């Protein structure tokens, strides 16, 4: 039973969440926003309202490849969202603008996440090497080192959650306040934003479950010594 629960969390949860996100996004991609503005126009409007005239907007290939690049000060929107004028397009576009506003305001969790990037990269790169070595050679020291590296990567994902939820909250407020959507469209926009946020929640849950598994493995090895 324990293995089945573990399998469902690790393997099935990401697939289920991705399917839910795609279905929700594709559904609202067909629903036009009442303002008639494209995602790019909506993003520009909200950026300008926040005084972020220096942040540019660019289209990028792929579906849901939208992101904000803090180093270049660019909001990059997938073509469906850049050129489209749907509820989904406006929601995703203003969410990414939310990150730009966070950057401009030096939002605490975003600042912490930026500082954790090199640590998280190192953790992702080296953790499984040391964990695997610790298992193969029955070395608790190597396993512990791997767990520490992996914990750094998990911490990055945990810190990412408030960053994403805050950006979505800002997006929803901006959409209504700037007249990008009507009040009766707020529920639809919230569904798109919540579906996207669930992908980060799922990734974090999986990472924490994996970390706990490695910790239990370490405790078991210590008890057998």
From TrEMBL:
Record bears the keyword Transmembrane helix: yes
GO molecular function: peptidase activity
Residue stretches spanning the membrane: 6-21, 128-156, 197-219
Coiled-coil stretches: none
Domain of life, source organism: Bacteria
Keyword line: Hydrolase, Membrane, Protease, Transmembrane, Transmembrane helix
Stored InterPro entries: Zn_peptidase_2 (IPR007395)
One Gene Ontology biological process: proteolysis
Keyword field contains Repeat: no
Protein name as annotated: Zn-dependent membrane protease YugP
Record organism: Cytobacillus purgationiresistens
Lineage summary: Bacteria, Bacillati, Bacillota, Bacilli, Bacillales
């Amino acid at each position: 039973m324990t293995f089945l629960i573990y399998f469902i969390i690790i393997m099935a949860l990401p697939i289920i969440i991705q399917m839910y996100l795609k279905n929700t996004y594709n559904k609202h991609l067909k629903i036009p926003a009442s303002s008639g503005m494209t995602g790019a126009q909506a993003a520009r409007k909200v950026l300008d309202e926040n005084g972020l005239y220096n942040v540019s907007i660019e289209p990028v290939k792929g579906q849901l490849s939208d992101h904000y690049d803090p180093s270049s000060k660019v909001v990059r929107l997938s073509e469906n969202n850049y050129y489209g004028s749907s509820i989904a397009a406006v929601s995703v576009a203003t969410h990414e603008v939310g990150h730009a506003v966070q950057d401009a305001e030096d939002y605490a969790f975003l600042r912490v996440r930026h500082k954790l990037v090199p640590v998280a990269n190192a953790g992702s790169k080296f953790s499984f090497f040391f964990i695997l070595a610790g298992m193969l050679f029955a070395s608790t020291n190597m396993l512990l080192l791997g767990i520490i590296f992996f914990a750094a990567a998990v911490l990055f994902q945990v810190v990412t959650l408030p960053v994403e939820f805050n950006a979505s909250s800002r997006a929803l407020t901006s959409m209504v306040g700037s007249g990008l959507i009507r009040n009766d469209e707020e529920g639809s926009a919230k569904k798109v934003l919540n579906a996207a946020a669930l992908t980060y929640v799922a990734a974090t849950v999986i990472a924490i479950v994996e970390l706990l598994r490695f910790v239990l493995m370490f405790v078991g090895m210590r008890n057998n010594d």
